[in-house]
Task: structure prediction
Amino acid sequence: MKHIIFQFTYIGILATSATGFEKDEVSARWKPLNELAKKAVSSAKIPGGSVCVVEKGSVVFNQSYGVLNDKTTKLWQSSTPVLIASITKPITATLVAVLVEQKKLSFDDPISKYIPEYSKLKLRDGSAVRSPTIAECLSHTSGFPGGNMGDLPRNSPILKADQAEVAKLIAKRGLVAKPGKRFAYTFRGYAAVARCIEVATGRRFAEQLNEKLLKPLGMAETSFFPGLEVLKRHPRYSQRIAGSSKEEVKSAISNFRAKLDRFVSSSGGLVSTSNDLVKFLRLHSLRGKANDKQLISSNVISRLYQKPPGSREYGLGFKLFGDETVGHGGASGTSAIVNLKHDRVVVILTQAGSKNARPLTGGGRRLALEILSK
Result:
């Protein structure tokens, strides 16, 4: 049997070739964005990607470019699923908002309410310090040291622990700053919040996310556990399963899911699509309403866009871009933003890595909003 490896923590991709591809006729209004995207993909650093722009629920621009990866001729599609990396963070924060609405949690709950080890936290100098709150963990002002899971050494016990053990290990290492005083971008607070959700609800984090948020929004292709049909379309994994039998791939997926059942990255582990991310972002531009149902009250969901003390232009799970625009990017080369005032959504997906993809993700985001404002 061919050895098939599935690993959805972003490590990095080096692309060596790419081609541009324009599916549909683009109106004069959107030609500048189309040209920017074609140029970015033809740079050889981005094998392929997609750009989707939605205004008030209507798709005004939706184009895909290039190929899935540098070793295939399969074209990138507007429905291509990708690892969204840190765009997982606003999704996790929104699940917290759902549970706050249902009075299962409070943004201001200390983590120690759910995980006793957080009542005994210490600073690195040995002095005692209070537990960070859920809000402080979501805004990266928890006091934990900065860093992503990809920065951990291979022998880190965190990489071999389950959800509960990870939260305890993080507490044991202590804080580097008092909660609420300093911004440090880190996965650690999100891992703690994921465990709080499990304790408060009695269900696994991934199960709660699916039941309370993804299903109500119709985000059918968003998951920590992508199935065979999604993997066949995924830029990084379609090549890995090429030439393998369906039974071999299913066996590999089962083994992968068995490991993920112990721990999922609530800060960066989701796979999703443009269509699903549009649904998610419009929940926010519609102030918590989905399918004519108020999933989250406006006063609860608005807390996610408020900058807390010690933060750097960051709310709870969302980067704050100004002019009522919020969203997030991902280390895999992804960007998803929403203008709350005008109900405008921009989703740009690649798997080229954030640095390589920046001409498309950063430049495309700015240009799309500029065109929409005219």
Summary: The radius of gyration is 20 Å. Residues 110 and 133 are 4 Å apart (CA to CA).
